[in-house]
């Protein structure tokens, strides 16, 4: 018997286990694939290993004295070899050793719920284990790519995010179907590595969950570098010529787009279809509803952390939830009632150590395209949809001297969303080279609900991109964004 059993040893499951062990709880963690999960081997880490050379080269081309040194193409072989090293050649020995180092027991195999507080594990060596949880089971099984139901798609062997981040060769022609983060980042990476990229977007533009100007900047950059970006198009069918021949994407107007590989970046679905949810009265295959302590609705012992609860499909947000869940599980265990009354969890309010408040008010994200984009909090469209009266302050990032020093011909934009009653920030969005490093300052301002009057005393260093904060405050003072 263990105090806690964790299903899934990705970054989320690892963090839940680590917090529980640090609090003195006995912990088992179950993993059916590689310890370290999607982020370590098929998402965050390999994708950024592919993107960093592309972005560094692009920025160097805008710096006097460097252009002639980096004018040639990227060394694709070296980039792919570095990607392989970053993911440990898809071996998880180091991460498995880390799990053992924190005192958790690792079970390799497929774990399934088998009634309340009980998990069965079908081991990879044919062995079978039955684990019982004294206090909690945490479902941290993540998500996988969702493919549309299209004629010919199964036989066409499309890329998903996994193939896009792990391919050992650069296709001559890559078709990207989708307009979200995976689509935009992988179009950026593979174009820089030498592929001719066509992006097919069903909606009006790229990165639709962010402010509209973000997708406009990213699309413009892709087009300038030779990509074909089409919006408002729908895919009707996919055909692969033989076992390894070219692929044809047929649009609903009959037009055909030819490529050597096709990536479908069209959403995610939870990995909950075969983990025994039906044994505890929950529907298999769906997202799991949770409260702010990440406890599944109607189950005082079951937690769902990370992608599976559909709050924010981001590794850093899942790890944040894991810290909250680990604290809540430990406090409830120490309280002894399961409800945490003694620890005050039942009365936990916003920004409590037991409440994932940032899921609602301050989710940060950086998109590693060229140019980079980053945002935290709500957008103008989200504020308007919620009926909130806000002021939006927009500025071109060339308003600061640091932009011209960062790169000749610098292009970028920022928008700040302000609650005019409290004069605090509700959201900030950036696009432009180097802006990913500006997001955390915005996150602190939003989470801390720092009044604009106090932000005047947060003096930005000169001459850096962060001086845009001063320009935003000046624009707000001078009436920008006022109806």
From TrEMBL:
Binds 1 FAD per subunit. InterPro entries: Class-I_Pyr_Nuc-Dis_Oxidored, FAD/NAD-bd_sf, FAD/NAD-binding_dom, FAD/NAD-linked_Rdtase_dimer_sf, Pyr_nuc-diS_OxRdtase, Pyr_nucl-diS_OxRdtase_dimer. GO terms for biological process: 2-oxoglutarate metabolic process. Residues 2-316 form the FAD/NAD(P)-binding domain. Gene3D superfamilies: 3.30.390.30, FAD/NAD(P)-binding domain (3.50.50.60). Residues 363-469 form the Pyridine nucleotide-disulphide oxidoreductase dimerisation domain. GO terms for molecular function: dihydrolipoyl dehydrogenase (NADH) activity; flavin adenine dinucleotide binding. It comes from the Bacteria. Keywords: FAD, Flavoprotein, NAD, Nucleotide-binding. NAD(+) binds at residues 178-185, 267. Disulfide bonds join 39-44. This is Oxidoreductase. FAD binds at residues 48, 111, 141-143, 307. It comes from Streptomyces laurentii.
